[in-house]
Amino acid sequence: MITSPVKKSSRHVESDDAQCDAYDQAELWCRERISSGHDMLFSRQIFHNEIKTASNNFGLPFEAIHSLFRNAHVSYMKRTSHMLKSQTTRHVQSYLNGASIINIAKKVNYPPSMMARLIVENVANNSSSNELENTMGVNVSNRKFITEAIRHPEKSWEMQALLKGRSVHNEKGDNDLQYILLSRLSLEVREAVDSDPMYGPHHDRMRHNIGIDYELLLEQMLHSMQIPFETEEELRARGTARTPDILLSCPLGLQVRKTNYHQIAELHESDIDVENSDEYEWKMICWIDSKALYGDVGTHTSSVLPQVESYVHRFGPGLVIYWFGHAPLSRLGDSHGDVLIRDGLPDVFMLPTGEFRRKNGQNNT
Predict the structure, then answer these.
(1) InterPro entries per the record (predicted)?
(2) What pTM value is reported for the model?
């Protein structure tokens, strides 16, 4: 199912200073919640409520705050996860001594689903491929076993042979080690995965599907504007490496402000008089890349810009669409003007022939 673009506010465009202040406040809110190990990190319901409140407070769409928060958390994880993993033995021992996975995750401020995976990797035993072949009918790698154990914990631990025979205790004080071995780990993995608001198999699938949805939406919009192009799939089929989502069959003109045009958060093409060249000029683009996320400064600088600069070197200048919004353009690198940034597909393009292509279908010269 194709999702609709994030609805933008109808208010007048704010000054660059106001946009920067709002962005800084939202980013600071994310960092504070993350570093403090807020309860929203361990409950989907609390997470949803907190993001909704922040959306209202900062005047940003729910999807924008949600994506900005996750981007900030990914950055936090990159900086801190090595320290947690160095304490793996201690965390596993805490679990074996009776602490629940979710409580261990809260104590060390680590995503519940990731803590579940860490525990499973060190408690579940599938080192014997013969055992797995005899009991499951297939020979699977350790990585595949762990992944399936996280996705379907109830199915993966039906056999005691798959668990390391360690002495463990649960928080209820059960003495039935047989029961604990076969049920406790699977139940706590399920609890951890279900409580995680950002990570785990469900969220991975959802992000993947949303990304595809927006790519398809972009293709449909270009088709409706009668703009010819090749998709990433078509480019790869003929052996092209490092491909954008859309390679235009001919360069297109995109209207931008002549001076300090990137000091404005959004350029509403519907308000532009294409005949008036005093304030705007046309920039050429050769490709479009779709990003179903919020374009914060860190993600744009460290991940997106290096990726799309390879497209610039290969195909020429292009356009990045952050469907969930982006930081003020004055904060985002543009590869010397070769990378334009928008939060949606522009309303009007110009073909090399001088013809206009519009979303409303009123194409003219």
Answers:
(1) CDIN1 (IPR029404)
(2) 0.82
